[in-house]
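Hi all, long-time lurker, first post. I run a small reading group and we've been trying to get comfortable going from sequence to structure in the token notation. Rather than ask abstract questions, I figured I'd post a concrete chain and ask someone more experienced to write out its structure so we can walk through it together at our next meeting. Sequence below, copied exactly:
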Amino acid sequence: QVRVVESGGGLVQAGGSLTLSCAASGSFVRNSPMAWFRQAPGEQRELVALITGGGVTNYGDSVKGRFTISRDGAKNAVYLQMKNREPEDTGIYYCVAARYWGQGTQVTVSS
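-- Answer (accepted) --
Happy to help. Here is the structure in token form:
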């Protein structure tokens, strides 16, 4: 059974930085795309960032230039470094490995 576990969420002030981590079980993850999605209160879930098995990245328009996604193939892990946080970044952040979703981690940005 594949497990996807996020960590690193919490409360941060606007303008601050925070890094989320995600670890996934299963050797197939190493060559699979991994991504971060988020869901703000009352909003639909949206793509934040994606990274392919080969390291190609793609970002949602609202986070370009502020967030950086990276991965560690040896650890089956993906990270999301968030800088210059804005209150609009508040939401539940979900990690996706291949087609498997984590439970999400809450991130709250105070103004």
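A couple of things your group might point at:
Residues 58 and 64 are 9 Å apart (CA to CA).
The radius of gyration is 13 Å.
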